[in-house]
Design brief:
- The chain is α/β, with parallel strands linked by helices.
- The chain has helices at about 20-30, 75-80, 95-100, 115-120; strands at about 10-20, 45, 85-90, 105-110, 120-130, 140-150.
- A five-stranded mixed beta barrel has the order 1-2-3-4-6.
Length: about 160
């Protein structure tokens, strides 16, 4: 992933974890308290998504990206713990861009407004942590050919340019 450049398009296959605001807050608090986290962040990919209710016969409901900037306050500490990539939509703060560069992470953009379409790339889905958060629980997704665009690369290249 470190060879990718801002603007590159990829089809990602592997494991991603969904996590939104409240899950990020809990993860960051756990790190600060030196608690064992419910998921291993080393090498992990987090998708800023809260999937809709799963329809009968489907793997997952609509699962489009949410606005990434809401996770900016938690992102540097997660990158420091080993998070390698994030998936969402929209701009990131300068602090997050610096942290991505420092920890050699990557920020991917998922196609907004296409949650129903993106659900077709999810082959398995199960709750991984914080079940009490309902649709904001952390889910473990196995995806195949999930379409993404590099928003910020490991060298700090930014599809949006500087703020």
């Amino acid at each position: 992933m470190r060879k990718l450049k801002a603007g590159d398009e990829i089809a990602f296959s592997g494991v991603i974890y969904t996590a939104r605001d409240q899950a990020h807050k809990r993860l960051a608090e756990g790190i600060k308290k030196r608690q064992q986290l419910p998921i291993d962040l080393k090498g992990a990919v987090i998708y800023y998504c809260g999937p809709a209710k799963t329809p009968k016969g489907k793997v997952i409901g609509s699962c489009g990206p949410t606005t990434s900037a809401r996770m900016d306050e938690f992102t540097p500490i997660l990158l420091k713990e080993g998070l390698v990539a994030m998936i969402g939509k929209g701009r990131r703060s300068e602090e997050v861009t610096r942290a991505i560069k420092k920890f050699k992470g990557i920020y991917f953009l998922a196609y907004a407004g296409c949650g129903a379409l993106l659900s077709k790339y999810v082959k398995k889905a199960k709750v991984a942590a914080y079940k009490d958060l309902g649709p904001e629980a952390i889910m473990r997704l196995e995806v195949r050919n999930f379409p993404l665009i590099v928003g910020i690369d490991a060298k700090g290249g930014n599809l949006y340019g500087k703020k």
